[in-house]
Every structure is written in C-alpha cells, then in structure tokens.
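Budget justification note: compute hours in this period were largely spent on complex prediction jobs such as the one shown. Inputs:
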Amino acid sequence: MKLQSTNTTYLLTAILLLIASFLVYQKESNTEWKQYQSEYYSQANLSDSADIKIISMTPTLTGEPELCLTCHIGIEQISEPHPVESFGCITCHGGNGMTLDKERAHASLIGGRNPSGLSTVRQSCGTSPTGVACHTGFTGDESWRNMIDRVEQSLQATEAGAIAQVRYTFGISQSLHPEYGTRAVQDDSVLNPDFPHELGDIFEKIEQDSLSGNIHPMEEKFVKNCLASGCHLNSDGIDKEYYHRSAGCASCHVLSDNDGLYKGADVTIDAAEPGHGKVHEMTVSIPYSQCNHCHNRGIYSLKQMKFIERDDLDPHKMQFMSAQERRDKDYYIPMAQYASCEVTLDCIDCHTHNEIMGDGDIYPEKKAAVEVQCATCHGTIESPPEFAVIKSLEQEDVFIADINEHLSPQVGDTVAVTKRGTLFPSVKKVDGRWQQTSKVDGTLYPIPLAHGSTCTQKLEEQDSPSCHQCHDVSDKSDLIGMK
Amino acid sequence: MSKSSNNSVILKFLLHLHPPRIPASSAKFSYTFGLGGLAVFSFLLTTITGIILLFQYSPTPESAHVSMEQITTVIPYGWYIRNLHFWSAQVLVIAAVLHMLRIVLTGGYLKGRSFNFQIGLILLVLLFITDFTGFPLRWDAESHWALVVGTNLIKTIPVIGAGLYQFIVGSTEITGTTLLRFYGWHIFGLPFIATILIVYHIYRIRKDGGISRKKGDSVPATITKEQLVKKEVLLMLTALAGVILLSVFWTPHLGLSVDTSPPLAEVQAPWIFLGIQFLLRYLPPVIAGIVIPMAILLFWAAIPYLDKQDDLQGIWSPEPRKRFWLTFVLTLAFICSTMLAEVVV
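Corresponding output:
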C-alpha cells in the first residue's frame, strides 16, 4: 500500500515535470520575434519557405551589430541615400539593438516612433556615429546644408507670421513684427536685417501670462484652438481622416495616407492604428496630397478664433470621380482661384526649397518668403523666363534637385531662376523650348510662354492674383455650398 | 534489497552518503519538511545553471549588460537557464531560512550540535552575500544603484569602513573592476567556501548522530537508506518541477543599461535586503545597515548558549518560551519590514 502510494506520487511528479518541460518548449517556440516572423512570411505568402531566424546586421557607419530586423523583418528601407547597410536603424532611431525584448529595445528611442520631430531631430538627423555633420553643423559656403536649422526657423515651423498677425489684429502687439513662434528660435546670421533675430515660445508666454493673471483671452484662444491643435511642424497631425501626418521632417518627407494607416510589410506596426506613415520611406517626390494633410483643409476664422473645416469633400461622392476631377476638387479650398497648371502640377513643382523649408532666416510672414511667380516659368509679355546655366552639381539648388529621382540636372543646363536667384533645375530650356519635369512622377510638360502670346499682363503686376484674373479654372459653383 | 548489486556507481555513492541507521521519526517529512535537502538541491541546481551561464556572461562594464540581454532574449533557452538560476537561488534562500527556523524551533542545536549550528549560520550569511554579489552582475541601472547604496553602507562602519570598502569595491568608487571583483566572489570565492562548508555541515550531522530526535528514542524504529533516498529523489523532482514552472511564468527583472536608463525614481535592493533598505529610511545607516543585522546575527549565534534544555530536542515546541518568542518576533520583524519596503516603494 505504502509502496503503491509512493509510486503514484512519483508518477504524478513525472507528469508535472513533463508538463513543465513542455511549457518551457512552448515559451521558447513562441517568443515575440518568432511570432512576428511567421506572421510576416504568411502575409507575404512565403510560409513554405519561411526561414525563422535571428537577423543580425552590422551597419558600416556604426560597426555595431543590431538585431532590430529580427522583429521588423518586412520594414521598408527609409530612402536610397540612407541605405540600411550603412545606417542600420539605431543611427536615426536610437534604442537598444542588442536585445529582442520590445520594451528595452525601444526604451531609449529618439522621439518615439518619429525621430525627426523638431525637438529630437538634432539627435537623429543632426548627428552621425562617425562624427561627420548630418543635416546641421555646416559652416561657410556649405551652411545651406543645415536643413535642420533652416526648417526650425521656417514659417511652417514657427508660424511667426500668423501669430504676429493675430496679436496685431487684437491689439496685443503694436506692430506686425513677429516676436513669438511655436518654439523659441534664434538666428545669428540674419541675411535680411528687417527680419526677426529671434522668436520667443508662444506656449511658454501664454503659460506665464496665465500664471500672472494677465492673459489676453483672444491670444489664449488662438494658441489653444489653432496652434496647439497641430498646424505647424512642431506638432503631430490631427488624428482624423485627411489630417494624418508626422511631425518635423517626416511631416512632409514621410507620406501619409488619408486614413493614416500603415500599408507596408512590417507586421509589428499595427495596420489598424491610424497615425503611421503609409510606408517606412522618406521621399523628396512629395505629391500635393501630402501638403493637403495641412493645407487647403479649411479656413481659420478670426471671429470665432478657430479652424473651420471645409465640408465639400464627400468621400463617398469623390470615389466615383476621375483622378483629375478628384484632384481639382481636393486641391484648393472652394474660394481659391487657380490656373490649370496649379492643379496639374504638384505644389513642390513651383514652390522652392527656400520657400518650403526656409533659407535660414526667420521670415516674418508668408508673403515675404514666396519667391516664385508665374513669370518664373512663363516669362513676361516682353521677355522669356529669367535663366541661368548650371555650373556645378554642388550648387545648392542643383544638389537638392539632384536628390530627386525624376530630375537629372547636368552642368551646362539652361534653367529658370526666381527673382531671388534660386535655380529651377526642373524648368529648363531644351532645343529652344522651355519644359518642366514633374518632381513627383517625372512627367514632362511644355511651358507656354507669355512672350509672343495673347497675354496682356502688365509687367509690374506679376503676382498670382493678377494672373488669376484671366487664368482661373476653379469651379465657382462650390462657393454656393461654402458656409 | 538484493538489487543493490545492480545499482549504478552514482546511486551507490548516494547511498553511501547516508548514515547506516536512519530513525523513522527523524526522517519524517512533517519533522524536517525536507528543508535541508531542498537547500542542498537548490544549491546544486544554482551551481549547474550558474556554470552554464559562465559560458555566456561577460563580466566587463562594456559588455555585461549586453551579454545579459543576449542570455535573456537571444540565445536559445538562455532565458530558461537564467530563470532557473534565479529561481533556484531564491528557493535556496527561502529553504535555508526556513531550515534554520526549523532547527531553532525543534532545538536542533542542542546536545553538542551547537558547532554545526554556527556552521549553518555562516552558510546563511555566505548565501546572502552570494545573492548580493550576483545582483549587480546584471549591470543595469537598478542593480548598479543598489550596488552603490549597498557598498556605501560598508563605509559607515567605524574605523575599518573606508578600508573595507576599498577592499570589496576595488577602488575608491564603483568602477569596472568592481564588477570583476563581484563576479569573482560570486562565481568562485563564495561558492567555493560554501561548498566546503556544506560538505562539512552534512558530514557533521552524521558525525553528531544523524538528524536530531526526541530524547528517549534510543532504540528507534528505522527506515532503510533506499527508502530515504526515494523520498529525497521525490522531493528533488517536485522541487525541480516547481522551479521550472516558476521559470516559465516569471522572468526576473532586467532593466536598462546605466547609460541608456532615465534617472530612476526608486532603487530597490534584492528582496532579501528590502528590510534593511526600509530601516535605512528612518535610521542612521550604521544602525540600520550594520548594527541591526549584526545584532540579529549575534542573537541567532547565541541561541545555543541561551537555551540548554537538551530534553526538549526533537519536539516542535513553543517551549522554552524565550526561544520561541524571540525567534518569532525577529522573524516577524524581518518579514514585516520586507513587506513594508515593498508596499511603501
């Protein structure tokens, strides 16, 4: 009896040991990275040839092995100029590449999922493991390469003009000269002496005003309703259909879908969670739709001091439209006037890098920053476009254009020039005719010139509203529906 | 038991380790709860898993944390070996403390066994120190700061504090050599001394006439060596299953490396030192970290000299009162302060 009970206990213990050992095997077979890899192979219909293994990569720039791709096996390379073999993941994202534990691997990420936000961009896009300057830190003739500094001081980041305008309108400031931006910035080498040398942080100012009890209600409302809700590069986009975008550099260079969902092959990224780029790629071929995640989405009402969304975009109706019809509708808010080229080309085909990303100066307002005119490409009734000949591929505007896969500027090309001297390598004279190459898809467009046409535009009136008096393809019927 | 001729060398050796006469009352599970055996088994398991970890762990400040990450997340079954090492060490601490309590509450130190009792006490202290030296080997922010706090306590000892600190830490502050020193103590120095003492501790039990028992049991009923070994193996297998299950469901903490960790709001010592950590908040370091632990240790060491009622050996008894109450109060105080430290953190 005694022996029997001992044997039973032995049997039970043996069973318990077996179960425990099986659980160990289960745990080892189902580690998170193995699950991600099987999911990746099954989504790519490669289950049969699935090779589930730890992926270690040693980028040439760091020389330190990284295991990130073990989980992020399907992730897209960020861009050709940043090959994964050289940069790896940690150079830009930070984090710990020597663990497969999700939490610890991501604990020291730079800026969470987006390292290019302007508060962290100097640690990511601004540094390199070899100590060579990246996108900041250049001096002298090369200071145009300081993209981080330029963007930080650009109007899209500071909103200096809008802030100054509101403060002036409501009598908070006696002048239109900007004093505040969405972040404090300083410009030590102001090219234009009339421009601000520094801007204070408007959010900080409001906080201090609030503490001292000396707060202007309209200014508070403006900061709260307009600036804090995601209308500048220092903030993320709004979590809403059409409005999705990242912050900082990725605001423009990482394209977002209208639904804000990730459509790439990295299974670790939740495909049902809005707020991701469409794929993990940066591009300089930025279509108008990306600009429209912020621009042309509605108007700001000074009276109500809030953003009023346009209500003429019915996604259900729009899905039956042709691409061009949808684009005509989508491109500009209904009250805008625009010429045919403006809804055929993309925003970046006309607007220069200086206008969009800034040129290093703190611009006081949008009008001061715009350098492109209709005449830049079309000339005037008296003369063809101003032009210059490309002397070197290292010239600022040429170098930047050369990054675009659809452009291939060559030394000797005759290209258009803005009134401030910015070269337009996408607009060039070939065999005596002017043509434009789309920066988004490479389409070639012949450019009709004002010179020799029936155009009667006065030479001194070259701003777009003057040209739009005749050249306007906008559908005015939309205005009826505008509140 | 004619089968014994077919037994393997190992079994023969195992049987040889046991005394020829085994009183049934001493070998009863409800008397010893197998705690000494459990401690020996968990010591062996800790040692074996520790030896396996030696081949993967790298004791330099640059690579220690990385190798911990590799063991925990990259190397196949590395997490399992690490978890087994951790959990068998925790079981060892608990088994050793409970074994000690059992000895005190059944008067196991009486009748000339006080010397072996002191050996056991030294083993317990060695165990605590081994546990403490293993903690910083993680080389994460938490263990790093716990090491700073723990070793700074040494400095508070009057006269010899500063010198002792430098001897243990290897410098005037925590550096990479501290890691190497702790590693040396953890994998060799302390276990080496402990192994010798454990062997002597077990040999001494036999020398002292086997496991303690009641007076008057001069011609007790006995069980065979095989019966005892069978019991021991059963206990061992059950304990093994328990440790495996603990390892599957609970992975010990691993924090971020010192250079990537944000500032820590709270540094927590290994759980067995939480009581001291709690006292440190309210008392001067030298009192909380040195005087009180030493006083408790001295009290335990003094028990055999305070209580000489040999006739009470072998009985789970609240008599004599001083033995029971003092042990009870001290143990309760230890548990309470540990729990308070957990709660208050």
